[in-house]
Amino acid sequence: MSADDETRPFEYPDSAGYPDGAGFLDEGTTAPVDDVTLRAVREVDRPSDDADSEIQLRHRSEDHVYAALIDGKQIASVRYDVEDGRVIIRDTTVESEFRNRGIASELIADALDDIRDRGTQVTVQCPVVAAFIAENGQYADVIAPER
Length: 147
Description:
Layout: H1 27-44, E1 55-60, E2 65-70, E3 73-83, E4 86-94, H2 103-117, E5 122-124, H3 127-135
Parallel strand pairs: 4-5
Antiparallel strand pairs: 1-2, 2-3, 3-4
């Protein structure tokens, strides 16, 4: 970059496609733009009723895994252990090509509902599950009291 190079802010066009002098992206608008983009991707990327494949949720208790599958292939999982009569949720994973579609949220909700139905409580070590519970207060009763 030479001394003659000039740095200019990039202006985003208005809804008609023309720069209007007020379309600059700054630190204050980056997050809202990202949120809008993510919401749009989620809406477009949801499977339709006539999709060839459907996501199935399974509990494999022998492996201590709640799994999401498409056409028999595991695409997401919530792994846990059982200690002293409680479930310890260790981690949540989603294959990269299936992220940002709400699959983890559905899988976590299904796992927590199943754990509640079994009359068991959880200790959460997974930050994804902890964030999910923080945003979905209806699952607070599943959390085991600290020992």
